[in-house]
């Protein structure tokens, strides 16, 4: 079993920055893909960014050049650095770990960007 705990969310003004963290604990394999998703009220949960165990990254078009995903394998932690935040980035951000055949989700952390 794997547990994911997100932290770092909060309220920020437009143009500001936040750094989200997701710490994983439990039975963690060496090869995993980790990702951040977000879900705004009344909308579906969408991929924000992902990173493989080898460090390959993928971003949603809406956050490209503003957000950076990274991971520290020694700490089993994935980060999301969010810069130049916009009101439309407001959502609950969820951490996801893909460890085939299982998928694990964190409980989410709220990010609110005021205009």
Architecture blueprint of SSEs:
Elements: E1 2-7, E2 10-13, E3 18-26, E4 33-39, E5 46-51, E6 57-59, E7 67-72, E8 77-82, E9 91-99, E10 102-105, E11 109-114
Parallel strand pairs: 2-11
Antiparallel strand pairs: 1-3, 3-8, 4-5, 4-9, 5-6, 7-8, 9-10, 9-11
Structural category is mainly beta
- Total count of helical runs of at least 4 residues: 0
The total of beta strands comes to 11
Quaternary structure annotation:
single chain
Unreliable segments (pLDDT under 50, ≥5 consecutive)?
none
Characterize the overall form: globular
Provide the β-strand percentage band. over 45%
> What is the CA-CA span between the terminal residues?
40 Å
* Helical content class: under 10%
Can you give the mean pLDDT?
Answer: 95
Rg from Cα: 13 Å
Report the sheet with the most strands, covering strand number, pairing sense and barrel closure: 7 strands, mixed
Query: What is the chain-wise order of helices and strands?
Result: EEEEEEEEEEE
């Amino acid at each position: 079993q794997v547990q994911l705990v997100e932290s770092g969310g909060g309220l920020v003004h437009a143009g500001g920055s936040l750094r989200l963290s997701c710490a994983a604990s439990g039975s963690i394999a060496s090869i995993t893909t980790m990702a951040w998703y977000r879900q705004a009220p009344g909308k579906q949960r969408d991929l924000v960014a992902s990173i493989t165990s080898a460090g390959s990254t993928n971003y949603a078009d809406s956050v490209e050049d503003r957000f950076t995903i990274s991971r520290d394998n020694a700490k089993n932690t994935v980060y999301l650095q969010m810069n130049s935040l916009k009101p439309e980035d407001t959502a609950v951000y969820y951490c996801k770990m893909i460890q085939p055949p299982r998928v694990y989700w964190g409980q989410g952390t709220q990010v609110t960007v005021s205009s």
